[in-house]
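Appendix C reproduces, verbatim, an entry submitted by the partner laboratory led by Prof. M.T., so that reviewers can inspect both the input and the predicted structure.
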Amino acid sequence: MTTRTARSSRGRRRGGPSHAVARGRSYQGPLWGALAALTVLGAAGFVAVDGGSSGTGVRSEPTERARSGRLGSTAPTSAPPSASAPPSASASPSPRTSPTSTPDIPATGPGTFITAAGGGGAVGSGTVLRYRVDVETGINLSPTDVARQVDRILADPRGWTADGRSAFERVSSGPADFAVRVATPGTVDRICGEYGLDTGGEVNCDVGKNVMVNLRRWLLATPVYAHRVKDYRALIVNHEVGHFLGHGHVGCPGAGRPAPVMMQQIKGMHGCLPNVWPYDDRGRYVTGPALS
């Protein structure tokens, strides 16, 4: 998780393995206990990224954001977004993997980015948000492939377009409302740190117009996602874009029910089942009690 320093009060805390938290809060004991519990839950079904539901699970990833202003998008009537949610980041310790399966992840990079080429028409109805997909120079990821995955997530009928108010269009040039940027841990730390967030080399954050995705999290996920990495990536994008749209954190709506995407699932499932999508297959918004 990340820690917000005194330099800025403009980020917003996200829940989950890749979010930062405010200075002074300890996450060590509860976090590792939550991860152990989530690892067990990971054996349950998951909501697949590349198709329909094959169950209910993926754990949401918290992240923090710092923005100079908010978009005027409206949340579903059943769960209005918090108008005063503070900045935040997501913390997520590295999952335990065998040496042979762990990719070589550079600690830091040059801080320059390659923007995925191309784009497409808008998906969804309502206010069109233009977004860019960037990959840090020198890391072994294809910008085209990353963009393809982000495009699929944002266009999924269970995603934020189901609110009937949000639409997304990827661009490769010109103005953009936000950018999804996959970068090395060091670069994420630097950019998030400019907004007073401490990502600790491990977590993601959402600051300014940047959704910063830690390369470690993109490649390794966390224990509950160890075999469902693409689902985990969907959770990162949906949680962070949800914050961008004005949604705050919520809690578990009840034992045995799907966990909301905006729930900080990394802190424990509290009886909820893992879930990666904002809406279910029937177009119902998956939410829970608002958290301060």
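The chain has a mean pLDDT of 74. Additional entries are available on request from the coordinating office.
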